[in-house]
Amino acid sequence: MGGKIGVLVELACEKSGQALNDAGHMLCLHIAANAPKYIKAEDVPQAEIDAELEIKLNALKEQKGKLPPEQALVGIKKGMAAKFCSQICLLGQDYVADGEITVAKYLDNVAREIGAPITVKRFVRLQLGA
After folding, report:
1. What domain range is 118 assigned to?
2. CATH code of the domain covering residue 71
3. Mind spelling out the 3-state secondary structure of the chain?
4. Model confidence over 70-120: pLDDT tens digits?
5. How far apart are CA 97 and CA 91, in angstroms?
6. What's the rounded Cα separation, in Å, for the pair 74 and 68?
7. What is the distance between the alpha carbons of residues 41 and 90, in angstroms, rounded to a whole number?
8. What's this model's pTM, rounded to 2 decimal places?
C-alpha cells in the first residue's frame, strides 16, 4: 500500500470564483508532488541556508581540491543560496503543470485573469506512509 498525501492551502484574494478555486486546487497538487517547506525565500531560516551552504562548499572543495578565491566565493554562495531556496520554497519552484514558469508566475497569471492579487497565506502537507 502506497503512502497517502493530504494538502491544505490558504489563499488571500479580494475576489472569489472558479478561477481562484482552480488555482487553489492546482497549488494543492503542486505541493503534494513537490513537498515545499516554505512559501518564499524570506521564510527560510538563515541557519538552514548556512548548513546547506556548508555541505555544498565541502563538496566543492572535495571535487576541486580547494575553494575558489574569496571574491568569487561570495557570488558562488549567493547563487547556491538562491538555488537552494528556489528548490524548497513554494513560490520559487517550477510549476508542476507547466515547467516553463514558477509557481509565483502561475499565481500572477491567475491574479491577472481574475483582476485581484493572490497571496499564499499558509499551507500544510501531510503524508502517511512512504
Report:
1. 4-128
2. 3.30.479.20
3. CCCEEEEEEEEEECCCCHHHHHHHHHHHHHHHHHCCCECCHHHCCHHHHHHHHHHHHHHHHHHHCCCCCHHHHHHHHHHHHHHHHHHHEHHHCECCCCCCCEHHHHHHHHHHHHCCCEEEEEEEEEEECC
4. 778 888 889 999 999 999 999 999 999 988 999 999 999 999 999 999 999
5. 14
6. 10
7. 9
8. 0.86
